[in-house]
Amino acid sequence: MGSPAKAVPVAEEALRAPLPEGTRAEAAIVAASALADMSRFDEALAMLRRIPTRPEVGRGHDLRVWYVTGDVLARSGRTDEAAREFRRVIRHDRTAFDAAERLAELS
Q: Is the pTM of this model over 0.70?
């Protein structure tokens, strides 16, 4: 979209629309990443928390939400909380993204 600020309203609109849960999760991920790029970490985390995840199942979009949550937390200096999110990803898929490497960096 050319600018992180432009992604947020588009994602907000998608989150209000009757879309599949995975699509809504992706919209939240895009918006949260854009907000984090603007150092608006609390808003980014609030955006991600709007997506209900299922810790006992760990669907594909759950893993992505947890990973991005971990990334935002790490970028904001909240390393213990970030490590918890990366562990959650690894619990369901040890090879997902670079979660294992990110966790090792935080230790």
A: yes
